[in-house]
């Protein structure tokens, strides 16, 4: 809760809000019998399958494991992941398309008194594999025709200290070498001695080629 509206909700207020919502939902009704509890827990797959399919498709297929950590923690329009006022329309459309086909079977599973056709019920029983692969395919198709901006962008240097000095980094991310130092004419070698510009540039090239 505090992550959604940090300006207005701190940890304590968020905790109180969650407590109130939790009591209002009356979760004990969902677990008063074994069959109903298992039905409710098993039905979460219609939400998890589309989300998992979108996440895996976005990270492994579309972006190919290339992310900019700096942009992930930039909460304004300059970030590559700001999308439309902080909302990814591609993800929302993909989730809705992958979620709604299982909704009739989900409703019948929770409330058997509501009758639906046998086809909807059978479709619901296969919600996880169908939701995972189906939503992932839909998300890939949407991203193919409407690709996200700055696709494949990564940080030029390790600004968050993710990698240890001397550790081999993916995608040529620099560790301990700042572009500002190179532009200024050199860099610090770490022992108090200044590194000449040519040597500094050579270190950058070696780091990127590694």
TrEMBL record:
Tagged with keyword Membrane: yes
Annotated region (Disordered), positions in chain: 180-210
Residues that span the membrane, as ranges: 14-31, 37-61, 82-103, 123-146
Chief localisation class: membrane
Annotated keywords: Membrane, Transmembrane, Transmembrane helix
Pfam families, A to Z: Transp_cyt_pur
GO MF: nucleobase transmembrane transporter activity
Bilayer disposition of the protein: Multi-pass membrane protein
GO cellular component, one term: plasma membrane
Protein name (Swiss-Prot/TrEMBL): Putative ncs1 nucleoside transporter protein
InterPro entries listed in its UniProt record: Pur-cyt_permease, Uracil/uridine/allantoin_perm
Gene3D superfamilies: Hydantoin permease
Family: Belongs to the purine-cytosine permease (2.A.39) family.
Top-level taxonomic group: Eukaryota
Location in or out of the cell: Membrane
